[in-house]
Amino acid sequence: MTLKGKRIAVLAEEMYQELELWYPALRMREAGAEVKIIGTGSSPTYASKHGYPVTVDAAADQVSSADFDAVIIPGGYAPDRMRRYPAVLKLVREVFERGGVIAAICHAGWVPISAGILKGRRVTSVPAIKDDMVNAGATWVDEPVVRDGNLITSRMPDDLPFFCNAIIQALGGGEVNADIVETTTAKEALAIAIRSEEQAAAFYKAAVKRTNDPDAKILFEELAKEELGHKARLEKEYAHLSGDPNWARYALWAHHP
């Protein structure tokens, strides 16, 4: 997976949630994106809820929406401060309106609310701000991650793997690069396949809940069961590899010990 050439802004303010800022920032960099920490302009450095500092690269009024393909908004108490700055709201709204990805987790939903971009959208958030999301015209659901077009929302730190995967996919980095396939060990390839089966099963389970068509429900239930069966088989093979240091079953796996 690669986000090479993509430019992402991660917003920051005082009392941000540590994992919700650093996990996406580092994950996007790992995927090849250029990540900039963008503050409100109130300070060059902000402390997290537990005092961990982050230094910004620029303030919101010093950048243009054209500079970014996505904006990621972490939660904590920071979003309630971010939403008070017109430059932050302008950045979020303009990136959204030209088709860029806006991703908000936990209490970060307050920022797209104030930016006026939630009406008619399907979203999630920490339950504490559910009413705020609904009052802004959104349909709120309790799911690990919700993607509605170029808007991505999640509920809490535990959802970060789903949140980041959705951002990467929305930015076009969800396909496996051929070069990665050629340099991946058998064990790594199986790990990738297991994650893929798990994600596919989760998608079909969500589809069961979201459709009102009885026949579609049956189909999605069968597909979810099938994907979980594939996952179980792959996990068994992964366990075999872990217990076989010579990986004899993959003797023809080119140049990998």
Description of the structure:
The protein has 257 residues and is of the alpha/beta class. It is built from nine helices and eleven strands. The strands form three sheets. It has a seven-stranded mixed sheet with strand order 5-2-1-6-7-11-10, sandwiched between helices. The model is unreliable at 175-182 (pLDDT under 50).
Please tally the helical runs, counting DSSP H or I stretches of 4 or more residues.
Answer: 9
Counting DSSP E segments of at least 2 residues, the number of strands comes to 11
Name given to the CATH architecture of the largest domain = 3-Layer(aba) Sandwich
Task: Please tell me the total number of domains.
Answer: 2
Q: List low-confidence stretches.
A: 175-182
Based on secondary structure, the structural category is: alpha/beta
Q: What radius of gyration results from the CA coordinates? A: 20 Å
How far is the N terminus from the C terminus? Answer: 24 Å
What's the helix-strand series? EHEEEEEHHEHEHEEEHHHH
CATH class of the largest domain: Alpha Beta
- At CATH level 3, the topology of the largest domain is Rossmann fold
Envelope shape = globular
Report the portion of residues in β strands.
15-25%
Please give the order of strands in the largest beta sheet: 5-2-1-6-7-11-10
Mean pLDDT: 87
Helical fraction: 40-55%
What keyword list fits this structure?
single chain, alpha/beta, Rossmann fold, two-stranded antiparallel ribbon, globular
Nutshell version of this structure?
By secondary structure, this protein is an alpha/beta fold.
